[in-house]
Amino acid sequence: MPRNFQLIGLLLFFLPWLNGCGSPTPAVYPVHGRVIFEDGEPARLGNVEFRAPDRTIARGKIAEDGRFQLTTFRPGDGALSGMHQVIVSQLVITKDLTFAEHNHGRRILPMYGDYGTSPLRFEVKKTDAKTFPVNEIVIRLKISEADIEDD
Known about the structure:
Blueprint: H1 2-18, E1 32-37, E2 47-51, E3 57-61, E4 67-69, E5 82-89, H2 99-102, E6 121-124, E7 136-141, H3 145-150
Parallel strand pairs: 1-7
Antiparallel strand pairs: 1-4, 2-3, 2-5, 5-6
């Protein structure tokens, strides 16, 4: 008889996992946008990250025209609602070539690539099918003095 109680206890313990009961995925809302420099030129290479207060990250790759789309759980699903810290990072490997020879466009200042130094903050708003897409975000970046001299 005690063995039956042990089996029932184990079944009751594991039943939530067998039933698929876990923490649901939080709601996310579509976010599309562009990364441009203050003179209007698009960033042509890099990544965008939006970090919610709970540290959930939404990411997007910057396309040649500066456009991006955020992903948190599934491709293109968006980001959590609320205010986000934002970074824009760029990794350019220029082994044996100068930056200009790679033709990746203008460099993004390193300050934008770190949550500790990036001044970028954006709000993601809750949307529904009637208001889609509300979250069209334009990220404007300052140009470094070195980039201005190279132009």
